Amino acid sequence: MMRDQPVVAVLASWTLQAVSFAMDRYRPHARAFAVATALVLSAALIRPAHADLADTVARVKPALVVVGSYRSTDSPRFRMRGSGFVVGDGSLAITNFHVLPEASENMANANLVVQVRRSGGDLSMRQATVVQVDKVHDLALLRFEGAPAPVMRIGDSDTAREGQAVAFMGFPIGGALGFSPVTHRAMISSITPAAMPTPTARQLNEATIRSVRAGPFNIFQLDGTAYPGNSGGPLFDPETGDVLGVVNMVFIKGSRESALSQPSGISYAIPSRFVQELLDAARLK
Predict the structure, then answer these.
(1) Contacts of 167 (CB under 8 A, 6+ apart)
(2) Which of 89, 113, 205, 268 has the fewest CB atoms within 10 Å, measured from its CB?
(3) Is domain 57-144 given the CATH code 2.40.10.10 in the classification?
(4) Which sequence spans correspond to the domains of the chain?
(5) pLDDT < 50 regions, the chain
(6) Which CATH architecture has domain 157-284?
């Protein structure tokens, strides 16, 4: 945008001179001419919102991580569990709580790891530990070893509005398409409560009960399609790259859509305000 300003300034100057000349010489038709030239100037000044997305994607990609587990005796040795993104001092990553291994899983001789993209483009596997979790909002904060990685800035999700353009990034289909970050455009189609009333006790599950006990909170419903593997990835502002939410493909569907026999293809995201609360809680420990 900044490099376009000199051109726009020259165009504006020429336009104003042309309008002034027309007003003096062709006064009967000056109004129509002025309107036409104003429209031309407006078209030059206004850039499409998606014009900045390519630059934003280039900035965001290095902060994206693959979250998984590693065991030398497994085949394959690395098992992807979800996406995540780097925050804070460059050694912390945010992901979904449901991405982490469950207590019932056999994790003997296995390690929780994240794969961080190096400047050359290849991935570096780092051992990770869990710093803090928020089960209610399905979030987890991890710390990983090694050199700090580029970070994403946490935005103010309270300013998000229905109809707002957003983008999200992650590793869809569990890495079946390769561990190359994939970006999707979307729109916040609704800001809505996370848990909906369920008609029968049989349809209640642990996530729904936990959500009801903690009180209602709003989530973002998106018109873009996220896939398995996108969970834990960032929902961000296409222009600034600020994180507005965390994509969630399991937890919310299990609570909000528990009344449906066939859950929909709608995608959701946890607002970033809860990410900031998680970071604040970790600092107080």
Answers:
(1) 53, 56, 57, 183, 184, 185, 186, 235, 236, 237, 238
(2) 89
(3) yes
(4) 2-47, 57-144, 157-284
(5) 1-5, 7-8, 19, 35, 38-50, 197, 199-204, 257-263
(6) Beta Barrel (2.40)
